[in-house]
Design a protein that fits this description.
This protein is of the alpha/beta class. It has two domains: 1-101 and 281-368, Isopropylmalate Dehydrogenase (3-Layer(aba) Sandwich); 114-129 and 138-265, Isopropylmalate Dehydrogenase (3-Layer(aba) Sandwich), CATH 3.40.718. Helices cover 37% and strands 22% of the residues. The chain is globular and about 65 Å long. It starts with a strand and ends with a helix. It binds 3-isopropylmalic acid and magnesium ion. The site of magnesium ion has 2 residues, from helix 8.
Length: 368
């Protein structure tokens, strides 16, 4: 009997609907070849939900996502909703889904395909193959936040006025559970782990450093080191191929993964998995945003979403063969020279063809 998986699909906004459609088309083709059935249900979140229900994350979306085997998400947000109240912003949907589903571990693999080395702004990117493990449900994105009025004065005599604050806070438990995931991942890879923090300034970072150093004794085979985040931003450019696993907090992981996207040639290539407690549905999404300027024009690069679907097959369902089928099809498509417009160096004496979302998706399916 064919195995069956229930996938909740949250297309979201901007290019989200186009790239999730691509990914599902690829998944359907890849799974049917291996006698597996997927069932999809579409859920609303982000701007799309604001337009339909007046709120970015309806209860129904959380409940239905929790009830699925895994979630595939496109992207949320766009200029249309930039002026809504902070609590109603589309991004709140993503944060709400992450916390609602308990998705504390965000796994962002960064590889540079041989064919795309020219698209990387680095002269000699080398063999880049690292993973950013980003803590996803804590830190400043979820800390105490607010405003208050102050009558105090600054050193130049001006009145402070309204003060806004966001708080970075982490519990030992939150830090230890993500560190464990990072150490375990390092054991399965090249056995190198780098903690990125700002321990020269922040108390929370000093706690991350203490706990990581303690845990490193349980993993004597793992070569463990620490970098301050400003230095890490620099080292990622100067020696990207030397990194294996990077573990860090929510905000540093957010920032460094966009930097990694550029190193990889295009942020349109990088997938991610967000995982919670074993047995609960994970969420798989590209690391890029909703790219409103490209939306609806058959221009978006669907590869990050397609590769996120491959990660889903591997990590949510243990379907390693299907994951590899998809990854190989993506590679073949790049080898044949097909490129979407986000990837620079199209043309320029290279044997490449500029194509749209539909064409590149069709090519991936044909290459399965
Ligand atoms: C990401 C995005 C989100 C984040 C935004 C859209 C809230 O940038 O997934 O990296 O900051 O986590
Ligand atoms: Mg980001």
């Amino acid at each position: 009997m064919a195995k069956k998986y229930n996938i909740a699909v949250i297309p979201g906004d901007g290019i989200g609907p186009e790239i999730t459609k691509s990914a599902i088309d690829v998944l359907e083709a890849a799974t049917s070849k291996r006698d597996i059935e997927i069932f999809t249900k579409e859920l609303k979140a982000g701007g799309a939900a604001i337009d339909s229900y007046g709120i970015p994350l309806p209860q129904e979306t959380i409940a239905s996502a929790k009830d699925s085997d895994a979630v595939l998400l496109g992207a949320v947000g766009g200029p249309k909703w930039d002026n809504v109240e902070p609590d109603l912003r589309p991004e709140k949907a993503l944060l709400g889904l992450r916390s609602g589903l308990g998705l504390y571990a965000n796994i962002r693999p960064v590889t540079v395909y041989n064919e795309l080395k020219d698209a990387s702004p680095l002269k000699n990117p080398g063999n880049i193959d690292f993973v950013i493990v980003r803590e996803l449900t804590g830190g400043i994105y979820f800390g105490k936040t607010g405003f208050y009025q102050s009558g105090d004065h600054l050193s130049d005599g001006s009145v402070k006025g309204k003060i806004a604050y966001d708080t970075e806070s982490y519990s030992e438990g939150e830090i230890n559970r993500i560190l464990k995931i990072a150490f375990e991942l390092a054991m399965k890879r090249r056995k190198k782990l780098t903690l990125v923090d700002k321990a020269n300034v922040l108390l929370t970072s000093r706690m991350w450093r203490r706990l990581a150093s303690q845990m490193s004794f349980d993993y004597p085979e793992v070569e463990f080191d620490c970098l301050y985040v400003d230095n890490a931003a620099m080292q990622l450019i100067s020696r990207p191929a030397t990194f294996d696993v990077i573990v860090t907090n929510n905000i540093f992981g957010d920032i460094l993964s966009d930097e990694a996207g550029q190193i990889a040639g295009s942020i349109g290539m990088l997938p991610s998995a967000s995982l919670g407690a074993p047995g609960t549905p994970g969420l798989f999404e590209p690391i890029h945003g909703s790219a409103p300027d490209l939306a609806g024009q058959n221009k978006a690069n669907p590869m990050a979403c397609i590769l996120s679907a491959a990660m889903m097959m591997r990590m949510a369902f243990g379907e390693e063969e299907i994951a590899q089928d998809i990854e190989n099809a993506v590679k073949k498509t790049l080898e044949k020279g097909l490129r979407t417009s986000d990837i620079t160096f199209v043309g320029e004496g290279k044997n490449t063809t500029l194509v749209g979302t539909n064409e590149i998706t069709g090519a991936v399916i044909a290459n399965l």
